[in-house]
Write the structure tokens for this entry.
Amino acid sequence: MHPAIPQLLELQTLDQVIASSRAELDSLPKKLREADAKLTGARAAVTGAKEAHTQALSRRKKLELDVEQWKTQAKKYREQSSSVKTNEAYKALQHEIATAEAEVSKVEDLVLEQMMTIEDIERRVKHAEADLRESEQAIAAEKKQMQVQYGEKKKNLDAAAAAREEIANKVPGELLDLYTRIAKRHPGSALAEARDEQCRACGVRVLPHVLQMLKTETDEEVFRCETCGRILYSLEPIPHAQHRQATNGAANS
Ligand SMILES: [Zn+2]
């Protein structure tokens, strides 16, 4: 296995960290918008309640005008009744007066009802406004929390990027280029472990002699999976090294 493989593995781990940190940081504006969108419902409730209040006030105004009109009407008939000549005309006017007065009392009842409706709506407005204030405070806190997390993630990202640069400098240029090319096609997995005679990334068989070479400490070749093209590495113990140690041990005794 090429001696720079452990560094490439570190590089790969850092690239994974960098990619996920970037994705999280990039999602912040959307998260902030989503938080703001939660206020839409509460704002609409306030607007709706205020509109209902305006409408209820104008209905009361209209009913009050109706009362005045019926009262004026009744007054007019009463004035006329003092100067009528016939009994029939008098009776007809009395009937008109009674009708107008009944209307006055009917519409006055409606005015009272409407005033209660208005009180209900005023309570609704107050509740909606309180809800909105509460939501605004909660959302503001949520957004502040997001900003704090953003700062921490940004710090982690910067640290990972610095560490990556340091390690990348240690990897031979040609190998780094190869890694970069493969990582473009397989982001975060330019390297694949060779285990159980398989490339663990694509599952295709790795030839026994390649496996053997990967486990050989002194080997400086780079082996790639013939199918997916990833750089292969082995985490299994290196039998050759153990063997050599054992041989040395035997020779010393
Ligand atoms: Zn493969």
Observations:
- The pocket of zinc ion is lined by residues 192, 199, 201-202, 204, 225, 227-228, 230 (CB under 6 Å).
